[in-house]
Amino acid sequence: MIDSKRLDPRFKELIASEPGGEHIKRCFACGTCTAGCPVREVTDRYNPRKIIRMALLGLKKEVLSSPFIWLCSSCYTCHERCPQNVKIPELMNAMKNIAVREGYLPPPMKTQLDLLARCGRLLEVTDFENEKRQEVGLPPLVGKTEDVKKIFEKLGIGRDETS
Amino acid sequence: MTKRVEDKPILSRYALFTGCTVPVRALNYELSARRVAERLGVEFEEIPDFACCGYPIKSVNRYAYLLMAARNLSLAEERGLSLCTLCSACCGALTEANHEIQEDEKLRDRINTDLLDSVGRRYDGRVTVTHFTRILEKEVGRERIAAEIRADLSSLRVAPHYGCHYTKPSTIYHHVEDPEDPKSLDELIRATGAISLSYEDRLQCCGGGVLAIDEQVALAMAQRKLEHIRAVKADALVLICPFCNVMYESNQKKIEKTFQTEYKLPVLFYPQLLGLALGLEPEELGLRMNRIKPNELLKKVVRRSP
């Protein structure tokens, strides 16, 4: 049962003001997204129509704290098919960005953030990797990638979310 | 590596953007792409300071993603080059960011203020981003490929996997092909002489996008496609994205264990298949690095005498 007193009517406005979330109010819940969703095909924990409905109703905490928004695989099938051009993968992304600001950063994403800040890449390049590359005749990876850390510092990433 | 073969004119020159996964986990892809490019007159230049495209941080902070993408694009712009990517996710992420930066002047100014302040760079939106496969399709073209064929692959039956970010969202790619019925990879496979198979749910996502969040969901997604490909008795799955490869090749054993079955399906990057048709040696194409050994498949490649 939904308790109407717990609904936050401003939640949809918050999402609509977030880059990627602009079109949330266009959704008329037809379910085209869910019908063609490859994630939904293997698990009922992810249901884009339901998530959008919950967000529009104002179930802010339920949406932001739930792992389900992170289950979008960004395949863009629904993005192509949505008759209202809600741009669902971008909308999910907007909700993820809000969730992170509200303190809900999934541990695997924290790991990725730390790696990017430290190495500038998702996979660390050590002498071992470069030796392997050299063995097969590929040029070594020697570039300066500390700029990524500088960008994170400029934006304050890693100060709050990953502390 | 980037030295051109003397009798081949350069068709086009690109900065090669390898991203995070390819240069560490898919050396066979990078190697075969470089060899094939060399043979077909596509020249690559190295920009060592390229970092991650920015895509992995999009879900945490979209603006940070835009800054990371803009930094990479500015490195290419500085040298007057356009970008060629091997990873479809890099291609999508850089293309999307590029469009936004090109089209939104206010955003461009904001990004440049922050980029200048943090890393001393700026980006004016003059770079184009293209996937290597698209370059093979659009710039090299099937005719030129056909003229270079040196081996008979006509008994090879392969299942193409387009992946998602190669065609979608179609708006960022100016609808280069129908994302609901793409044909370019099938045509490129046929250009090698091999048979391109159709199969159930051929456009299904590999699941790579949720691998870090929920491994079981990702494996279940990849397993469905392996089932459908087994049904059409393919010699190999052919793909163009290192992350799709992580799902279908690196994780194939894990999928077999989880779902109590066996596929032993070789997975080739398209440039490996093309390289075989061009008469390049399996070693040159990194085929020894493929985890699921394509030995049976290699026996079907009939080299033509020069």
At CATH level 3, the topology of the largest domain in chain B is Rossmann fold
Radius of gyration of chain B: 19 Å
CATH architecture identity of the largest domain in chain B: 3-Layer(aba) Sandwich
Number of helices of chain A: 9
Order of helices and strands of chain A: HHHHHHHHH
What is the share of helical residues of chain B? 40-55%
Low-confidence stretches of chain B: 1-6
Report the end-to-end length of chain A measured between terminal Cα atoms: 36 Å
Output mean pLDDT of chain A: 94
Task: Give a written overview of the molecule.
Chain A has 163 residues and is an all-alpha fold. Chain A has 2 domains: 4-101, Alpha-helical ferredoxin (Fumarate Reductase Iron-sulfur Protein, Chain B, domain 2, Orthogonal Bundle), CATH 1.10.1060.10; 107-155, no CATH class. Chain A contains 9 helices and no strands. In chain B, helix 7 links the parallel strand 6 (157-161) and strand 7. In chain B, helix 3 (62-78) packs across helix 5 (105-119) and helix 8 (215-231) packs across helix 10 (252-258). In chain B, the strands form 3 sheets. Chain B has a 4-stranded parallel sheet with strand order 2-1-3-4, with helices on both faces. Chain B is 44% helix and 11% strand. Chains A and B meet through helix 5, helix 6, helix 7, helix 8 and helix 9 of A and helix 1, helix 2, helix 3, helix 5 and helix 8 of B.
